[in-house]
Hints:
10 helices; alpha/beta; single chain; 5-stranded parallel sheet
Amino acid sequence: MSQLLLHNARVVLERDVQRGAVLIREGRIAQFFAHDQMPAGLSGSESIDVRGSYLAPGLIDIHIHGSAGVDVQATDANGLNKLSEFLLGEGVTGYFATFVPTNEREYSKALATVASHLALPKSKSGARILGVHFEGPFVNERRCGALHREHFRTYDGDLKSIELFVGEKPELPRLMTLAPEIDGGLELTRELTSKGVRVFIGHSQADPETLDLAARAGARHITHFPNALDPLHHRKPGVVAWGLVRQDVTLDCIADLHHVHPLMLKLIYESKGANAMALISDAIMPTGLGDGEFSVWGDKIRVTNGRTNLATSGENTIAGSVTTMRQALKNIINLGVPIHEAVRMATLMSARVSGVEYELGSIDEGKQADLIALDDDLAVRIAVVGGECNRFD
């Protein structure tokens, strides 16, 4: 029986941080031991001293377009391998490949690439693709951000028009960000939800009445809040006000400190708490490559001091981010969020809103052993994927 004991750790649990150890058996979490409950010996176990590092669930990114020179919509299976290896070094053990609006042919090609990557022998030295996230194309053209309007769609009730987005079961989990106010948006939300697609609200100008209907239809999560939404207005409350006050609505944020001002991030955290707020990267292909000008989605995107901009629009339009989940985690902690809550936002909350909580996102008995050991500066020292250990120190 294959066993691995990670000990001398500050274990980041859902509610607190405790000194102790985690036992992994056959690729799954078998048990957490507090430091004063450690057994005298575990026969047949490999033992690794993590030297006081934080031991946390692997980070889960539910909204990422690429990194390390790889775009998930313009690569092959080997490119996805490269991306997965980069992400693991940043503490991400699972992610949802995120597609921007395009035509049917390009969607199909990208989905085939993901399928071919998943058909390769399972690698334990890279992050795993957990599913696919469609950011659009059923979104509001007046809140397009860096997305291309020419590929936006409305829904006329024809089920064949959404077959590509639903897929065939058994299939990887699928997420879709849409604007419920577009023609057919509420019906689309109901159809997708009934077919197992998790529907998020984003790139939207919906009013509270429409949003209430969308929530009843199955959409109770908001994408990269409050970006690509109407700004908060005291006489015209939209998605921002609705999302902050609805207790049954969750949201995710890009905590790169460019998309959302630190004070606004604190406001969102104080309003929603760690049980309703997830972290995402929204990272694009140039992530990890430094400053410069890059071609992404047919546009020239300039990266300067960690901020992206469409080169044709000056500093008016941010086009994705070049941050990582690990950096977002550091940023949130630096704002005063306790580390166990910050980790929850980047792990359990991500797993919960995307539907993979039953397998991932926390250090609980029976879940997949996807874990990371972080030093005091939150650099990754060890990453465990499916019980297999990867060292970075």
